[in-house]
Design brief:
β1 and β2 form a beta hairpin. With 214 residues, the chain is mainly alpha-helical. The protein is built from ten helices and three strands. The model has no long low-confidence stretch (mean pLDDT 89). α4 crosses α6 and α7 crosses α10. It is rod-shaped. Strands 1-2-3 form a three-stranded antiparallel beta sheet.
Length: 214
């Protein structure tokens, strides 16, 4: 069966892309620069079809990546895994990753810094837990260490406990201790850090009570 271009249409969302219809079916989407020598009625050889298919896969992989990045920053590995899950061929994945890096849309160093700041602000974790999360996302150890340089487990643990002060205020000391140690353990903090945070929390509570009585 002859493969013939029956229509060329500008992409409805991106004027820099062209939708190519072969035998009246939308078959490829390529960048405008890759469509300059195409025209309606042009018969396509098997080689040209294969070339257009590769460019289509590359463009689709890039657009899929950009869409995935719209929700939040991602590491390089997250993008790769997402594209592989969508069954894009390795060459298209590699090309999309390279374009994203060149445009600074993915940068593991910036991502690691964002992840740590985001977690510390909204859902604090210990440095151990944060390191594990970033390793799972494929970030290099050196980049993780740099991103965690300014974090302080003691301060984060105490801030977490203080955030639950009202919730725990009516508990007796033994129950409060159990709650605090278990809570911090679930967030990845070791026993020593959790114990110190508990003691500081109790001391602040006592200081506050003394202040209220004066």
């Amino acid at each position: 069966m002859t493969q013939k271009i029956t229509a060329l249409k500008t992409h409805f969302r991106n004027p820099g892309l062209v939708r190519i219809f072969v035998n009246n079916e939308h078959t490829f989407t390529v960048k405008l620069i890759d469509a300059t020598d195409l025209k309606t009625g042009l018969a396509l050889t098997a080689e040209r079809m294969a070339s257009l298919q590769r460019k289509h896969e590359q463009e689709e992989a890039y657009l899929r990546s950009a869409q995935y990045l719209a929700y939040r920053p991602r590491s390089r590995r997250e993008i790769e895994q997402h594209l592989r899950k969508k069954k894009y061929p390795p060459a298209a994945v590699e090309k999309a990753i390279r374009r994203l890096q060149e445009s600074r849309l993915i940068d593991d160093q910036a991502f690691a810094s964002w992840w740590v700041a985001h977690r510390c602000r909204l859902k604090p974790r210990s440095t151990y837990a944060l390191r594990f999360e970033l390793l799972q996302k494929g970030v290099d150890e050196d980049i993780i260490s740099a991103a965690l340089e300014e974090t302080d487990d003691g301060k984060m643990a105490l801030a977490l406990v203080e955030s639950r002060r009202k919730q725990w205020r009516r508990l007796d000391r033994q129950k409060k201790r159990q709650k605090i140690l278990a809570f911090l353990h679930r967030r990845g903090f070791g026993y020593d850090i959790a114990k110190t945070a508990y003691e500081q929390f109790i001391q602040r509570s006592e200081d506050q009570s003394d202040g209220d009585r004066t």
